[in-house]
Every structure is written in structure tokens, then in C-alpha cells.
Design a protein that fits this description.
The complex is a heterodimer. Chain A is of the alpha/beta class. Helix content of chain A is 33%, strand content 20%. In chain A, strand 9 and strand 10 (251-257) form a beta hairpin. The longest helix of chain A is centred in the last third of the chain and has 23 residues, at 352-374. Chain A is globular. Chain B is α/β, with parallel strands linked by helices. Chain B has a domain at 254-339. Chain B has eleven helices and twelve strands. In chain B, the strands form two sheets. Chain B has an eight-stranded mixed sheet with strand order 6-7-8-3-9-10-12-11, sandwiched between helices. A four-stranded antiparallel sheet of chain B has the order 2-1-4-5. The model of chain B is unreliable at 334-339 (pLDDT under 50). Classes of the chains: A alpha/beta, B alpha/beta. The interface between A and B is large, with 48 and 43 residues.
Chain lengths: 375, 339
């Protein structure tokens, strides 16, 4: 184990090589070889991430968002999984080339993960304090007492009342929200560079969800770590995302800043997601426009654009040719043949800004016409 | 709507579960007060939304109405008949009129039955008088109505995706054309794009058949979208009830206000600029609920009276009910409370 190796230098203490980013995912492909055929679970994912940034990965179940990040953590069993191409570099070093021993040290120490279900990701037979302190004992060589002391501090930090008492309790004595706080405390114990949160609030109630998101943001402000947040709900991330990657059928279909994705989305799938969320306006209810059909099977992907069978705007080329990424000057890209066609982008859903624009234009128009009448 | 007779009338419904099993001390055993003194009405063809956090008793309310669990106290009148006092025979005829859609589309369909058998089972049980071939034809029609391929009538549930399975559950619930369907979190297990499909389907079917819904969910925007009126529950009690527009635009209970402000809005501009109340802590245990107003332990504006006296569920405006001593439009500030 890495803790016995005194010469081991924490990767996170090493400088990021010139021209590199904290994390670089480069055309990653992860396929599963199953009896039914080859599942193209992740098929060409690329992005970069720096310290202090929050990347949100949005997609439906089966879009490859979780598998991508399980691969980064080295948690995919191979076989049946197989990396068919691409690379993941953390501080300039390829994660895929690391030995299991090295990976053991990265996991939890440099890159930590919070899972969706706080009920099943804690061990029911160990006390909370032992589980929170486990990483410290392993990676930092803390003694039992030191680890327990630090675990108590961490529980206090994530807002668990009476931490001295709670460290000696078992997971079943905690509520769902409290367990997720324990998970966050555990993930942050070794002060990781990157925190990957896989649907951390999906199992929680709204009021608790708000608490957890606030806590993750506060922790990020203090520690400067990067966050990768995986979710299926665009709403949850509106106020925390710096960058957003929308995934569909194992591929990123749109990538941009939160501004760009919410106010200038350029892929019909992103539009579909936005239109599927009930409107929060207080005016009359609008019809929801769902995305027709179901996501494709990742074994038999359709030729051409994988979204074409469900896309209301699909034309012949969409069924024939896989679209390239069409990238704007700011790095906002969309994998749609028509993403740079202004006439096509007119189909994009309304948002609060376009609505305000429209209202302003209308008001200006009305003002002008009433002035005319007066004249 | 006020002139119409309610289809369902729930009066002072309470449900307690024993918290500890044991024979000797059972009389003194602790009780979980899951639903406490809940009253509301549902009119024909309308949708009443019931929102609240997990453990607030919204599902137990739904199950008590169907008498899937027997209420401890109170009455449930369905078209004037008290469900709580019905015999088994009466219950069977009641369930012809009242059906249930479950949350989990994976667990609520028998994996060993074809979807044709699943959907025609209620028809068989209630003896619809159809011959086998008529029934088969009717089930195919139903599959078509809920947007599934009638050719798939002989397939098994595992061959369908989550959204499709929920459609099967919906077809089963609609098979007898019931007057009321209790939908217990019907879309919370589904992906966003599929969620919208199922919500639209439920709305279309309601238009077509005039069915009333009790729509139980924890997602406020979903409830807002589908409901005519909305009731908010906290720890076994309804704290606010109103038509959807008033409830979302002018909530008067601090719990409703904090729920609404905690719900994320998919628009960074709005999300960053609005004022939010983030409640501290978890909901207390229903085994030993707080005295007075059950919300006072987490309430941002709680006063002395709140822990002593239970607030009355009163009509603050016509058709708008609220159980708070200090009910007032958002945001209620401590400074605005006159003592």
C-alpha cells in the first residue's frame, strides 16, 4: 500500500506541467464486451478541468456520464470493460498507465467521489468515525486516535450536530441527508484536487438538496478543489456550474459555459431537455414538449447522429453522417450538423433572456406606435 | 366548482403505526403518527396535488384512501360512502372506481405475466362481461391509447424501458375507467425527457375520460404542472392548500415558502438573484412530533406561541387554507410579525 512508501510524493503536491490542465480527458472510449455485443458506453469524451472549476455533466440514464467518471476513478471492471482509445491525464500524468498501487493512492487522496445513494455507499457494520477516517489512515498514515479526531472535525465542518457523539454511531442512525454529509466529509478528508459527485442529491428531498449543494459550494470556496457534478436534472446545476457537458448515447453532444447552455443552447437534445422541464413561470401552464421515443441501445447505435431518430428536426444527412463538433470562438461546441445555422437556431426554446428581450421590443414597439397616434 | 358535490371527501384522517413491536407493553408502546387530522376534498375531473418531503405521510394518505391500509381515525367518503367502514365486498366494488398508479415501474408489474395479462387482470377480477377476444381487442386499444405498440401485448415487463413500464401501469389503472386515480410519485423514477411524456399522457387521458387524480409527488414543478389545486404536507399534516396559482405565487405558510425557494430553477439569472430560505436540519421524527406547530423546530419565524399552540387550519383567503399562526405573503419576516 502506498502509505508504506515514504518516498511517494502526493501527485497533488506536484505542479501542473506547462500547457496542461488539472484534468484532461482526451477522446476517451470505454466499451463493454458483453454476450449481446459491444456496448459503446463512452464513445469519445473530451474535456479539461482546472482547480476551482465546476463541471456539470448532464444526461439521461445510460448516456455514459457515470461510466466516464467511474473510468477516471479506475472503478470499471475490465473485462467486461475495455478502454478502446483516448487518455485521461491528471496533472499531466496518464491515469490509464498507472499501476493499481498508484491508482490506490490517487483514489480518495487526489480524486474523490461521492455516490448517488448514501444508503448503500456506507458500510453498515463500521462506525461513521472509522469510515470517515479510513482515507486519512491509508493515505496520510494517521494513527487511529488522530484519524478519529480529524473525522470529528470533518463531521462538524459539514454541519453534523454533536459530532463527538455521532462519530461513534452507525450509518443506520443517520438520516439520508446526514449520510450524504458523511459522504462529503469522507470525500473531503484528504483534501482532494477533484471531487466527483455522481447524482449526490437525487435521493434527497428538496430542502436537503439545497443544503447539500450549498455545502459543496462552500467547501469548494475554502479548498479550491474542482468539482465534477453528474446529474440528470438541468435545474439543480443552474447556479453552481461553470461549464456544462451534455451527454447522449455515450457522446458529448454539447459543451459550453452555463451561460451558453442555458441562454444559447445549440443542440436539439439540449433543447429537448430544457423543454421537458415544467415551466416555473407563474403565468398559464404551457404544454410540456417531451422528447419523443427512447434513448437508443448502445449496442446497435443508429448510423449518423445518434439523436436523429428522436430529433424533430432531423433530415436525411442526420441519418447518414455522424455530425462533427461545431465550435464557436469561445469553445462552445455542439455535435449537430446545423449548429452554426442561424435560421436553425431560431428553433431554440425561449428563456428568460429572450423573453425579456421580446417584451422590451414589444414595449418599445408599442411606445413608438402610441407616439405616432398622438402625433 | 363549489356547487359540485365532491367525489372524495377526507375528514380528519389519521393513521398511526406502532413504532415498536412487543406484546406486553403494546398499550404503552410508542406510535408513529404518519398522518394526523388531514381533511380535503377532490372534485370530479380535477387534480389535487399532494407535495411534501419523504416521510411526511403523503403516501400513507393515498394508501388510506384506497384502504390499502386502514385509517386509525377519521372518515374517507367516496361518493358519500365511508371507505373506512366498508366490507370487503364493498371495497371490491370501490376499487373499480378508484385505482392506483405506483411509483416504481419495475416493482409494480409482475415479471411472470405478459403485459396483456397484466392489463386485463382488473377486467377479469371485476367481471367486465367481455369475451376473451373482446378483452384482447380492448387491451390492444388501451395499449394504443397509452402510446405502446399493440403488437407487444404478449411481451413481458422486462422487455420494456422504465417509461414504457409506467405506461403499462397507467393502462392497467385506466382499464376500468375509474373515477379517481391515486398516482403515487408516478414520474419520480423516470428520466426528465420521459417524465414529460408520462405527464402529458396523464393529462390527455384525464381530458378524455374525466378522471380525477390525487397526484402525490415531491417535485414541486411537476405538481405545479399537473395540478388544479395543491396541498402541502409536513410531518403528517396538511399545512397549506390552495389553487395551484395562488399557492405558487402567494404561499402563506413558511414551510411552503421555503420549499418553493429551495426548489432549483433551471435559469442561472433567476436562480442567482432570487432570495432563498434554506431550512436547517432534518424533519423531526414522527414518533415524537414537536408540540404545537409541528414545523416550529425548523421554522425561520417561529415564536413562543408556535411551540405551545397548534395552529388552526384556517381559510386565509377564499379557497386558500393555511395552518400557521402568522400566515402572510412571502417573504414572512420576523419583523413583520405583530405580537
Amino acid at each position: 500500500m502506498a502509505k508504506h512508501d515514504k518516498n511517494y510524493v502526493d501527485l497533488k503536491e506536484q505542479p501542473i506541467p506547462e500547457g496542461s490542465h488539472l484534468l484532461e480527458v482526451d477522446n476517451l472510449k470505454m466499451y463493454f464486451h458483453t454476450q449481446d455485443g459491444v456496448v459503446h458506453a463512452v464513445d469519445g469524451v473530451s474535456y479539461t478541468l482546472d482547480r476551482g472549476e465546476t463541471l456539470v455533466v448532464v444526461g439521461e440514464s445510460g448516456s455514459g456520464k457515470s461510466v466516464t467518471h467511474m473510468t477516471i476513478m479506475g472503478l470499471i471492471e475490465m473485462p467486461p470493460g475495455k478502454i478502446e482509445g483516448g487518455d485521461i491525464r491528471y496533472r499531466g500524468r496518464s491515469i490509464l498507465e498507472m499501476t493499481e498501487d498508484e491508482m490506490q493512492h490517487v483514489r480518495g487522496n487526489d480524486i474523490a467521489m461521492i455516490f448517488q445513494d448514501p444508503m448503500t455507499s456506507l458500510n453498515p457494520v463500521y462506525k461513521i468515525g472509522r469510515q470517515v477516517g479510513e482515507g486519512l489512515r491509508l493515505h496520510r498514515g494517521y494513527s487511529k486516535q488522530e484519524a478519529l479526531k480529524r473525522a470529528t472535525e470533518l463531521l462538524d465542518l459539514v454541519g453534523i450536530p454533536e459530532p463527538e457523539k455521532r462519530v461513534n454511531e452507525y450509518p443506520h442512525q443517520f438520516s439520508g441527508g446526514m449520510r450524504q454529509r458523511v459522504m462529503i466529509a469522507m470525500a473531503l478528508a484528504c483534501d482532494p484536487d477533484i471531487l466527483i459527485a455522481d447524482e449526490p442529491t437525487t435521493a434527497l428531498d428538496v430542502t436537503i438538496q439545497a443544503q447539500i449543494i450549498e455545502l459543496m459550494q462552500k467547501m469548494q470556496e475554502e479548498n479550491g478543489n474542482a468539482i465534477i457534478m453528474i446529474t440528470h436534472d438541468l435545474g439543480v446545476v443552474a447556479d453552481m456550474a461553470d461549464k456544462i457537458m451534455v451527454m447522449y448515447a455515450g457522446r458529448p453532444v454539447e459543451f459550453g459555459t452555463a451561460e451558453e447552455i442555458f441562454y444559447d443552447p445549440r443542440h436539439p437534445y439540449t433543447w429537448g431537455l430544457i423543454r421537458s422541464i415544467p415551466d416555473h413561470g407563474m403565468d398559464e401552464k404551457k404544454e410540456l414538449t417531451p422528447i419523443a421515443g427512447n434513448p437508443p441501445s448502445l449496442v446497435n447505435l443508429p448510423t449518423g447522429c445518434p439523436f436523429a431518430p428522436r430529433c424533430p428536426y432531423a433530415v436525411d444527412i442526420c441519418h447518414e453522417k455522424l455530425p462533427e463538433h461545431i465550435t464557436t470562438e469561445t469553445g462552445h461546441y455542439s455535435a449537430c450538423h446545423f449548429a452554426d445555422d442561424p435560421a436553425f437556431l431560431e428553433f431554440a426554446p425561449e428563456n428568460s433572456r429572450t423573453r425579456a428581450d421580446l417584451a422590451a421590443r414589444k414595449a418599445a414597439g408599442q411606445g413608438a406606435s402610441s407616439e405616432k397616434k398622438e402625433a | 366548482m363549489a356547487t359540485k358535490e365532491p367525489l372524495l371527501k377526507v375528514e380528519h384522517l389519521s393513521k398511526e403505526f406502532p413504532a415498536e413491536s412487543g406484546m406486553l407493553m403494546s398499550r404503552f408502546a410508542k406510535k408513529v403518527s404518519a398522518v394526523n387530522d388531514v381533511s380535503f376534498e377532490i372534485y370530479p375531473g380535477e387534480t389535487l396535488g399532494l407535495v411534501g418531503e419523504s416521510g411526511c405521510g403523503k403516501s400513507t394518505t393515498g394508501r388510506s384512501i384506497m384502504r390499502l391500509t386502514r385509517p386509525t381515525a377519521g372518515h374517507v367518503y367516496f361518493e358519500g360512502r365511508d371507505v373506512a367502514k366498508m366490507s370487503h365486498k364493498e371495497l371490491k366494488s370501490l376499487r373499480r372506481e378508484m385505482q392506483f398508479i405506483f411509483q416504481d415501474p419495475y416493482a409494480s408489474l409482475n415479471p411472470r405475466m405478459t403485459i396483456g395479462e397484466i392489463i386485463s387482470e382488473p377486467l377479469q377480477i371485476h367481471g367486465d362481461g367481455r369475451t376473451a377476444s373482446e378483452r384482447n381487442k380492448y387491451v390492444r386499444e388501451l395499449l394504443d391509447v397509452v402510446g405502446l405498440n399493440p403488437e407487444h401485448i404478449n411481451r413481458y415487463p422486462h422487455e420494456f424501458s422504465g417509461g414504457q413500464r409506467q405506461r403499462i401501469g397507467i393502462a392497467r389503472a385506466f382499464a376500468l375507467h375509474p373515477k379517481l386515480i391515486i398516482c403515487d410519485e408516478p414520474v419520480s423514477a423516470l428520466d426528465v425527457s420521459i417524465q414529460a411524456q408520462v405527464l402529458n399522457l396523464l393529462k390527455d387521458l384525464q381530458k378524455q375520460f374525466g378522471t380525477a387524480y390525487l397526484f402525490i409527488a415531491h417535485d414541486l414543478s411537476v405538481v405545479q404542472h399537473i395540478s388544479d389545486r395543491v396541498a402541502v404536507m409536513y410531518l403528517g399534516k396538511i399545512v397549506e392548500l390552495s389553487d395551484w396559482k395562488t399557492l405558487y405565487a402567494e404561499p402563506q405558510h413558511p414551510y411552503t415558502q421555503s420549499l418553493l425557494s429551495a426548489a432549483p430553477i433551471p435559469d442561472p439569472d433567476i436562480q442567482k438573484s432570487r432570495s432563498r430560505i434554506i431550512l436547517a436540519g432534518d424533519p423531526p421524527s414522527p414518533i415524537d412530533p414537536p408540540s404545537g406547530c409541528r414545523f416550529h423546530t425548523r421554522c425561520p419565524i417561529a415564536q413562543g406561541v408556535c411551540s405551545e399552540q397548534q395552529p388552526e387550519f384556517r381559510e386565509v383567503e377564499p379557497g386558500h387554507f393555511c395552518a400557521c399562526h402568522f400566515a402572510a405573503p412571502f417573504p414572512i419576516k420576523e419583523s413583520s410579525i405583530e405580537l
